[in-house]
Amino acid sequence: MKSIVLPPNEFLDHYVLNAEFHRLVGISKNAYKFWKNVEIGRYQGTRVVFLHKNSILKKYQDKLKLCTDLNGFVLASAFCSFTTLAPSHLVKKNDSSIYKILELKEVQGIKFVNLKKFYDFLGLDYHQHIYIEKCRFFSPAPFEKRIKITDSMCVGYY
């Protein structure tokens, strides 16, 4: 078994959520541990397991179509660690302005953020590092690149 730690800005384009996959297929959540040449990914500090689509056994390949499409998405906790955004901004009842901008998805009780769509909204390349802070904490314009996304929040990038 090949296990990799996914960078926090790694899109889940080539992965399926194990928690969803094992329920759809009707197998144990740990069945992948006994497969040959399986590749799994996890974000650092999480226990959520993602199975690489190419390493799924042939007899289960047709079940991949039933899994939720995670193209462009990242785990919400990975998004928060990557952008330094507090997780409370990803909760609707907190009335965060950023919540309205982001595309969120929940699968099997696990929250995801569409990072690719957020990059597109900002007009930035996918490889750029971003961080979200209150605009007042940024240095004056030529010293720090930023994009204002709400009245009080800005995205810095490099």
Q: pLDDT under 50 segments (min length 5)?
A: none
What value does the average pLDDT take?
94
Briefly note the structural class of the backbone.
alpha+beta
Topology as a string of helices (H) and strands (E)? EEHEEEHHEEHEEE
Cα radius of gyration in angstroms: 18 Å
Report strand order across the widest sheet: 1-3-4-2
Number of helices: 4
**What is the end-to-end distance?**
35 Å
The portion of residues assigned to helices is: 10-25%
Total beta-strand segments: 10
Characterize the overall form: elongated
- Oligomerization: single chain
Strand content: 25-35%
Mind describing the biggest β-sheet? 4 strands, mixed
TL;DR of this structure?
The chain has helices at residues 18-25, 76-83, 97-101, 115-122, and strands spanning 2-6, 15-17, 39-43, 50-52, 73-75, 104-107, 110-114, 130-134, 146-148, 153-157. The protein is an alpha+beta fold and 158 residues long.
Give a description of the structure.
The structure is a single chain. This protein has 4 helices and 10 strands. It has 158 residues and is α+β, with helices and mostly antiparallel strands. The strands form 3 sheets. The protein has a 4-stranded mixed sheet. Strands 5-7-6 form a 3-stranded antiparallel sheet. A hairpin with a 6-residue loop joins β3 (39-43) and β4. It starts with a strand and ends with a strand. The model has no long low-confidence stretch (mean pLDDT 94).
Keywords:
3-stranded antiparallel sheet; 26% strand; 158 residues; alpha+beta; 18% helix
Task: Give me the secondary-structure topology.
Elements: E1 2-6, E2 15-17, H1 18-25, E3 39-43, E4 50-52, E5 73-75, H2 76-83, H3 97-101, E6 104-107, E7 110-114, H4 115-122, E8 130-134, E9 146-148, E10 153-157
Parallel strand pairs: 1-3
Antiparallel strand pairs: 2-4, 3-4, 5-7, 6-7, 8-10, 9-10
